[in-house]
Structures are given as structure tokens and as C-alpha cells.
Amino acid sequence: MGKEKKAFPLRLDPELYKALEQWAGEEFRSVNGHIEFLLREALSRAGRLKGTPKPPAAKE
């Protein structure tokens, strides 16, 4: 069996949800699946997801 997922309530602005719903549909994902995909991608880019390297520090 797969990993058990943590369930929790999430309150979103209706416009934000509508935009996510449309984008998820275009990507053939559920809204929940698309939110998880986006969070995983952001965490990976930030080096905060287990097994991903931290990005180099930004230069000013």
C-alpha cells in the first residue's frame, strides 16, 4: 500500500480556488493533486524537500 496522507482543512479565497481548479483541469489533475504537485515543486526548488539539494544563495 502507498503512504497514508495527512488530511486537514484548507480555506482558500474563491478566486484562488477557481484559478487552481481551471489549472488542475488543464493538467488532468484533481485540485487536491495539483496543490500537492505545486507544493512539492516549490519545496524541491527551495531545497526543503528530503533528498533535494539546497539552492545556492542569491547574490545581491
TrEMBL record:
Q: Which organism was this protein described from?
A: Paenibacillus thailandensis
Q: Which domain of life is it from?
A: Bacteria
Q: What is this protein called?
A: Toxin-antitoxin system HicB family antitoxin
